[in-house]
Every structure is written in C-alpha cells, then in structure tokens.
Amino acid sequence: KNRFCSTCSWQDTLKWADKIKDQMMSLPHRHVVFTLPHQLNGLIKANGKELLSILLRTSADTFKDWMGHKYNLKPGIISVLHTFGETKEYHVHTHMIVSWGGIENQSKKLSQIKGEYVDYDFLKNKFRCKFEDELIAMFDNGTLEHGFSDRIEFMRFIRRINKNRWVLHLEPPMKIPKQVIRYIGRYSKRACLSEYKITRIKGENISFRYKDYKTKDINNKPIERELELNYRDFFPRLLQHVPIPYFRLVRYYSMYSNRADIPPEYKYDEST
Fold first, then answer.
1. Exposure of 112 by Cβ count < 10 A (0-12 exposed, 13-18 middle, 19+ buried)?
2. Which of 24-28, 108-112, 255-259, 260-264 tops mean pLDDT?
3. Which of these, 4, 192, 202, 218, could form a disulfide with 241 (CB 3.0-4.6 Å)?
C-alpha cells in the first residue's frame, strides 16, 4: 500500500483516472510541464515540503493568472509532482493538466480558448518571478534551510540561476478529457521505476531501460537505452524519490480545487 510500490501505485492511478474524468469540464485540455533549474536541487532537498509546495502552487498560479487576465476565464488545473527524470537523477518538475478554456468570470458560461498560441517567454518569466519571490521571502523571514553566508551571497546565487531560461513545455490540446487522463495517468501516483524496466541484476550491478529524449529515431521517438549501476549507486538514486510522508503529490487548482462548483451540464459526459 505504499505510494512507492510500483504495483500499488499503478492500481491507484487507474482508480484515480476513472474517478476524475467524470469531474472534468467538457473542454480540450493541455499537458504542461514546468521544470526547476538543477542548481536549486540542494535547496529543495533541504526544504522538501515547503519548496515543492511552492513549485506546485506557483506553476498553477502562473496559468490561472494568465488565463484570467487574457481571457477572463477560470480554468481547471490538476498538478502532479515529479522529482525524477528517465535515469532517476534528481529532476524536479510538475506535470499539469490545464483546461484549454474555462468558466467566464462574469457570465459564468463555459468558454473554449481558440488556437494553441501562448507567449512562452512571458509565462516562463512569470513562473520564475513567482517562485523566486516566495524563495526570497523564506530566506528573509529565516525559514529557509541554506548554507549561504549572507543575503548578498544568496542574491548572487539567484542571479546565476536566472542566466538560463526556466523550462516550460506544452503539448497540443487534447479534445476528450478521457484521453488526457489516460495520457497523464502514467505520470501520476506511480513509482519512479517500474519493475519491467529492470533488465538485469548480476553480481553487484543492476541495469534498467530508459528513454533518451535527446536522441530520436526516424519516427521522432526517443531512443531506448540501458543504464548499468552498482547497487551502491542504484539504491540511493532510487530512494531519493520516495514520497515525503503525507505530502500530496497530486493537487487541484482554480475550478478543479472544488469540482462541486462546476455545473453538471459543463462536465464531461462519456456517453455523449
């Protein structure tokens, strides 16, 4: 029954997907990924719950504020936290399901956004500013665990991580919520390494398969590779992703924070 169990987590994902699809708005939805710079990994590990919660909240607020200002809509957002990449290194990011439309603030009508365009640079900067504002506030009020000698050194660190653009990725809108849930389901609630990906255990070494997204085949799909690690490296790499006790990995924002507020006629009906 542990969330880190690959079998239990997959069964939990199926139950969650079946339940949540009927509570989503009948709109296209987009898969969105926000990724934190790796330079922040040390601070995140030292301030787990606080900074991971800030990541989930500020990434959702970025889209909520932008859609409210640009389209006068309240979207539905489901966020899923991940701390791992394909090779199970520490790689902190959030997968989000964002309704591509929402309920209009004044008329309360369901409205779909036309087209796929977003200003990537604007959204990246908005997310970065929101996250950093809360990070700096934690430093100033003394609640941030860190190794900086003073505020000057801390702000120099902030300026260094701002030299590179923060990463935002959006998939094209998917029309049917059931398709979206099936797609995002593989990212939610599951353990970071499925048993079937372990290809060999020999002596002190363990090998597993992973997708190399930097190298694509002729069909533009990532090449699958194999990584072999000594067990002394394999287990610490794996166990750093054990979920924090009582930490909510899946969170709901805006219209999906209280799905009872969505009129029944606006919800997805699989039978229609």
1. middle
2. 108-112
3. 192
